[in-house]
Amino acid sequence: MKYMLLSIALLSTAIARAEAPMSKWLVAQVAKNLGKTQAEIRESVTEKNCNGMIAAMEGCHYVKLVAREIRMNAQYGRLEKRLAEAKDREKLAKTQRAWIAFRYATCEYESRSHEGGRLYGMEESGCNSSMTEERIKTLRDYADCEGDDC
Protein backbone atom coordinates (compact mmCIF):
# COMPACT_ATOMS: atom_id res chain seq x y z
CA MET A 1 0.00 0.00 0.00
CA LYS A 2 2.85 2.37 0.91
CA TYR A 3 4.47 1.75 -2.47
CA MET A 4 1.20 2.28 -4.31
CA LEU A 5 0.72 5.68 -2.62
CA LEU A 6 4.28 6.64 -3.46
CA SER A 7 3.73 5.58 -7.09
CA ILE A 8 0.56 7.64 -7.31
CA ALA A 9 2.31 10.67 -5.83
CA LEU A 10 5.18 10.35 -8.29
CA LEU A 11 2.82 9.85 -11.23
CA SER A 12 0.74 12.84 -10.16
CA THR A 13 3.88 14.95 -9.98
CA ALA A 14 4.87 13.97 -13.51
CA ILE A 15 1.37 14.63 -14.84
CA ALA A 16 1.07 17.97 -13.04
CA ARG A 17 4.39 19.18 -14.46
CA ALA A 18 3.48 18.10 -17.99
CA GLU A 19 0.23 20.06 -18.01
CA ALA A 20 -0.05 23.63 -19.13
CA PRO A 21 -1.66 26.00 -16.63
CA MET A 22 -5.37 26.58 -17.05
CA SER A 23 -6.28 29.71 -19.00
CA LYS A 24 -8.24 32.52 -17.35
CA TRP A 25 -11.28 31.55 -19.42
CA LEU A 26 -11.08 27.93 -18.32
CA VAL A 27 -10.58 28.85 -14.65
CA ALA A 28 -13.68 31.07 -14.87
CA GLN A 29 -15.72 28.29 -16.50
CA VAL A 30 -14.64 25.69 -13.93
CA ALA A 31 -15.39 28.10 -11.07
CA LYS A 32 -18.85 28.77 -12.49
CA ASN A 33 -19.50 25.06 -13.01
CA LEU A 34 -18.43 24.14 -9.47
CA GLY A 35 -19.86 27.19 -7.71
CA LYS A 36 -16.45 28.28 -6.44
CA THR A 37 -14.35 31.37 -6.82
CA GLN A 38 -11.61 31.58 -9.41
CA ALA A 39 -9.08 31.89 -6.59
CA GLU A 40 -10.33 28.62 -5.09
CA ILE A 41 -9.96 26.89 -8.46
CA ARG A 42 -6.43 28.21 -8.99
CA GLU A 43 -5.48 27.14 -5.45
CA SER A 44 -6.90 23.65 -5.91
CA VAL A 45 -4.63 22.94 -8.88
CA THR A 46 -1.38 24.15 -7.33
CA GLU A 47 1.48 21.68 -7.19
CA LYS A 48 1.13 21.60 -3.40
CA ASN A 49 -2.47 20.40 -3.63
CA CYS A 50 -2.04 18.13 -6.64
CA ASN A 51 0.86 16.33 -4.96
CA GLY A 52 -0.07 16.67 -1.30
CA MET A 53 -2.53 14.98 0.97
CA ILE A 54 -5.02 12.57 -0.59
CA ALA A 55 -8.04 14.84 -0.01
CA ALA A 56 -6.29 17.77 -1.73
CA MET A 57 -5.16 15.50 -4.55
CA GLU A 58 -8.74 14.28 -5.03
CA GLY A 59 -9.89 17.89 -5.28
CA CYS A 60 -7.15 18.73 -7.75
CA HIS A 61 -7.95 15.75 -9.95
CA TYR A 62 -11.65 16.54 -9.88
CA VAL A 63 -11.08 20.17 -10.89
CA LYS A 64 -8.85 19.01 -13.74
CA LEU A 65 -11.53 16.55 -14.86
CA VAL A 66 -14.14 19.31 -14.89
CA ALA A 67 -11.74 21.51 -16.87
CA ARG A 68 -11.22 18.73 -19.42
CA GLU A 69 -14.95 18.17 -19.73
CA ILE A 70 -15.42 21.88 -20.42
CA ARG A 71 -12.69 21.75 -23.07
CA MET A 72 -14.26 18.61 -24.56
CA ASN A 73 -17.65 20.30 -24.75
CA ALA A 74 -16.05 23.30 -26.46
CA GLN A 75 -14.46 21.03 -29.09
CA TYR A 76 -17.75 19.18 -29.50
CA GLY A 77 -19.55 22.49 -30.10
CA ARG A 78 -16.90 23.57 -32.57
CA LEU A 79 -17.30 20.32 -34.51
CA GLU A 80 -21.09 20.48 -34.36
CA LYS A 81 -21.05 23.95 -35.96
CA ARG A 82 -19.06 22.55 -38.89
CA LEU A 83 -21.68 19.92 -39.67
CA ALA A 84 -24.20 21.33 -42.13
CA GLU A 85 -26.50 18.30 -42.19
CA ALA A 86 -28.88 17.63 -39.30
CA LYS A 87 -28.35 13.88 -39.74
CA ASP A 88 -24.60 14.35 -39.22
CA ARG A 89 -25.20 16.37 -36.04
CA GLU A 90 -27.53 13.62 -34.80
CA LYS A 91 -24.85 10.99 -35.51
CA LEU A 92 -22.30 13.09 -33.65
CA ALA A 93 -24.64 13.41 -30.65
CA LYS A 94 -25.29 9.66 -30.65
CA THR A 95 -21.56 8.97 -30.85
CA GLN A 96 -20.80 11.36 -28.00
CA ARG A 97 -23.45 9.84 -25.73
CA ALA A 98 -22.07 6.37 -26.47
CA TRP A 99 -18.51 7.55 -25.81
CA ILE A 100 -19.51 9.07 -22.45
CA ALA A 101 -21.20 5.79 -21.43
CA PHE A 102 -18.09 3.88 -22.56
CA ARG A 103 -15.80 6.22 -20.58
CA TYR A 104 -17.79 5.81 -17.37
CA ALA A 105 -18.03 2.02 -17.74
CA THR A 106 -14.32 1.72 -18.54
CA CYS A 107 -13.25 3.84 -15.59
CA GLU A 108 -15.63 2.07 -13.24
CA TYR A 109 -14.08 -1.22 -14.32
CA GLU A 110 -10.50 0.04 -14.10
CA SER A 111 -11.11 1.49 -10.62
CA ARG A 112 -12.81 -1.60 -9.23
CA SER A 113 -9.81 -2.73 -7.18
CA HIS A 114 -10.02 0.54 -5.18
CA GLU A 115 -13.81 0.51 -4.72
CA GLY A 116 -14.71 1.46 -1.18
CA GLY A 117 -11.14 2.55 -0.54
CA ARG A 118 -9.55 5.94 -0.08
CA LEU A 119 -8.01 6.01 -3.57
CA TYR A 120 -11.17 5.13 -5.49
CA GLY A 121 -12.18 8.71 -6.31
CA MET A 122 -8.70 9.65 -7.47
CA GLU A 123 -8.34 6.51 -9.55
CA GLU A 124 -11.72 6.98 -11.20
CA SER A 125 -11.30 10.71 -11.90
CA GLY A 126 -7.78 10.08 -13.22
CA CYS A 127 -9.14 7.51 -15.65
CA ASN A 128 -12.01 9.79 -16.70
CA SER A 129 -9.57 12.65 -17.09
CA SER A 130 -7.11 10.80 -19.31
CA MET A 131 -9.86 9.37 -21.49
CA THR A 132 -11.42 12.83 -21.81
CA GLU A 133 -8.08 14.30 -22.89
CA GLU A 134 -7.94 11.71 -25.67
CA ARG A 135 -11.51 12.53 -26.69
CA ILE A 136 -10.63 16.23 -26.87
CA LYS A 137 -7.87 15.37 -29.36
CA THR A 138 -10.24 13.22 -31.42
CA LEU A 139 -12.93 15.91 -31.55
CA ARG A 140 -10.31 18.54 -32.42
CA ASP A 141 -9.02 16.35 -35.26
CA TYR A 142 -12.55 15.94 -36.59
CA ALA A 143 -13.20 19.69 -36.36
CA ASP A 144 -9.88 20.53 -38.05
CA CYS A 145 -10.30 18.02 -40.88
CA GLU A 146 -10.46 19.67 -44.29
CA GLY A 147 -10.76 16.67 -46.64
CA ASP A 148 -13.78 15.09 -48.29
CA ASP A 149 -13.66 12.08 -45.99
CA CYS A 150 -14.24 14.06 -42.77
Number of helices: 7
Mean pLDDT: 88
Could you spell the SSE succession in H and E letters? HHHHHHH
Main beta-sheet strand count, sense and barrel state: none
Q: Give the helix/strand class.
A: mainly alpha
| Count of beta strands | 0
- Please state the overall shape, judged from the principal axes of the Cα atoms: globular
What share of the residues lie within helices?
over 70%
- Quaternary structure: single chain
Hey, roughly how much beta strand do the residues contain?
under 5%
Q: Uncertain segments of ≥5 residues (pLDDT<50)? A: 1-17
The radius of gyration over CA amounts to 17 Å
Description:
The chain has 150 residues and is mostly helical. The chain has seven helices and no strands. The chain has helices at residues 2-18, 24-34, 38-44, 47-50, 54-82, 86-110, 120-144. Helix 2 packs across helix 3, helix 5 (54-82) runs parallel beside helix 7 and helix 6 (86-110) runs antiparallel to helix 7 (120-144). It is globular. Residues 1-17 have low confidence and may be disordered.
